[in-house]
Amino acid sequence: MNSLHQFFFGYFPYICLAVFLVGSLLRFDRDQYTWKTDSSQLLRTGQLRWGSNLFHIGILVIFFGHAVGLLTPPWIYEIFISTADKKLMAISVGGVAGVLGLIGLSLLLHRRLSDPRIRATSKGADILILWLLWAQFALGLATIWGSVQYHLDGAKMAQLSAWAQHIVTLRAGAAELLVDIGWITKAHLVLGMTLFLVFPFSRLVHVWSGFGTLAYLRRPYQLVRSRRLGLGERSDAPR
Predict the structure, then answer these.
(1) E strand segments, 89-164
(2) Residue 133's pLDDT is what?
(3) Residue ranges, the chain, pLDDT below 50
(4) Which residues are annotated as a binding site for heme b?
(5) Binding site residue list
(6) Mind listing the pLDDT tens digit for each residue in 58-71?
């Protein structure tokens, strides 16, 4: 194991997580007016609708699939499913979601690069993020071929899960678990961590707002006083 491997899979995850969390907090505190998606929907709607929907379906399935698949200890999921069957499910579901996401991103990239008005209003960071996400989806799909050919027993997936769980629980020796992992998978992991690194400095921060809207489900009704009502009367209206 060389020093570069140790850096990317032993130290780099913590750098990315620290920048992701602290950077997001600082941006929300200092630059709330930049906390938005910068949507170009008013300029051109049709292709955006298809591309955005396909991309969001794909990335949400993959995000939650990775989170559950990598961070769930084996003693929990082996009650319901074997490691090999879990691997097959990850390949099938992740493959479909990956294809949908890649098609969506391709539409979004074509729209942003081919339309002069949208290109003129686009920031360099917007285009960079789309390319990074496209490459990440492509690398993820590329790992499926090797998995189908050589790793259907789920052993490599178990290694990746052990690495992720070592990282989030601050245990030493995480990098050693990935020494024999293929270079495509390693590139997929590094690029995925890099997305967390650039997250606070891009339009991706609007993802936090999406999760934040769930808090509204538990908020109480707001009492609103109508001007037409008397002083002793009230009107209840949802906020």
Answers:
(1) none
(2) 96
(3) 42-43, 229, 235, 239
(4) 56, 66, 188, 206
(5) 56, 66, 188, 206
(6) 999 999 999 999 99
Which residue shows structure tokens 């499910």? 89
- pTM for the model: 0.82
Asked if 28 and 207 count as a contact pair (C-beta separation under 8 A), the reply is no
Q: Hey, what domains does the chain have and what are their CATH numbers?
A: 3-209 (1.20.950.20)
Query: What does the alpha-carbon distance between residue 150 and residue 175 come to, in Å, rounded to a whole number?
Result: 22
Q: Could you tell me which of 172, 123, 139 has the C-alpha nearest to residue 62? A: 139
Number of other residues whose CB lies within 10 A of the CB of residue 235: 10
Burial pattern 140-169, b for ≥16 Cβ within 10 A else e, equals bbebeeebeeebeebebbbbbbbbbbbbee
User: Cα(140)–Cα(130) distance, rounded to whole angstroms?
Assistant: 15
> Mutual orientation of helices 124-150 and 183-198 as an angle, nearest 10°?
150
**230 exposure class (CB count in 10 Å sphere: 0-12, 13-18, 19+):** exposed
